[in-house]
């Protein structure tokens, strides 16, 4: 690969470089990754065209495209049909891919990642309550309004599973956003994508046994009211209880246990 002297980086700066992997595709991935995270790199910034990159690194377009696929899967670039790729905004796509694969391979991972989701959401509720009681209260109003709307819609049609799923997700996303922690929000969104099937099973099982289908809306309202008190401890307790119900449901599913070892 003729990307320049071994002691030069993709931008032409001299200096020691870390050892490069042998695969041409992996080398291109490594070089373009440096372009995406190096000084001056900004989300939305355009990368050189595939033709330019292939010429710069002295590789075929086939190798370059394979490298770009890898970079897109890692959440570093966003490719557009017929246009140069751009540097992606920080995102949790690698987390989403990891969680999805783990859950597919090991049913115990579903419980583990649900426990992680619980820990993050409980902390998010704490942060949201702190913001409500602090100088950033005004910035949370839109998020709180979205949470209220989700509860109202959930209550209006509690027997419709798609509505329940959509409004459940919207409520938790709104509260996460109210925390003001963007990284926490992104990680929770990644977990949500991979745990969506489990959430649907929880709702269907609830509807099959609950006396009052609208009770879910009431549960979410309790959590929101706790956050709105501005008392972090109260918010934590409410979210802790709410998500503990979800964990219990997963633990008690008929097929939740691993098959016995032979």
Describe the structure concisely.
The protein has helices at 24-37, 50-57, 61-73, 93-105, 108-132, 137-156, 161-178, 182-209, 215-228, 232-251, and strands at 77-80, 83-87. With 262 residues, the chain is mostly helical. Helix 5 crosses helix 8, helix 5 (108-132) packs antiparallel against helix 10 (232-251) and helix 7 packs antiparallel against helix 8.
Number of domains: 2
Query: Which fold name fills CATH's third level, the topology of the largest domain?
Result: Four Helix Bundle (Hemerythrin (Met), subunit A)
Oligomerization state: single chain
The CATH C-level class name of the largest domain: Mainly Alpha
Strand content: under 5%
Mean residue pLDDT: 85
What are the salient characteristics of this protein?
262 residues; mainly alpha; Arc Repressor Mutant, subunit A; Four Helix Bundle (Hemerythrin (Met), subunit A); two-stranded antiparallel ribbon; 3% strand; disordered N terminus; WH-like_DNA-bd_sf
Overview of this protein structure:
Keywords: DNA-binding, Transcription, Transcription regulation. Residues 1-10 have a biased composition (Basic and acidic residues). Residues 22-90 form the HTH gntR-type domain. With 262 residues, the chain is mostly helical. The protein has 2 domains: 24-87, Arc Repressor Mutant, subunit A (Orthogonal Bundle); 94-251, Four Helix Bundle (Hemerythrin (Met), subunit A) (Up-down Bundle). It is built from 10 helices and 2 strands; from the N terminus they run H-H-H-E-E-H-H-H-H-H-H-H. The chain has a two-stranded antiparallel ribbon. A hairpin with a 2-residue loop joins strand 1 and strand 2. The radius of gyration is 23 Å and the shape is elongated. Residues 2-16 and 256-262 have low confidence and may be disordered.
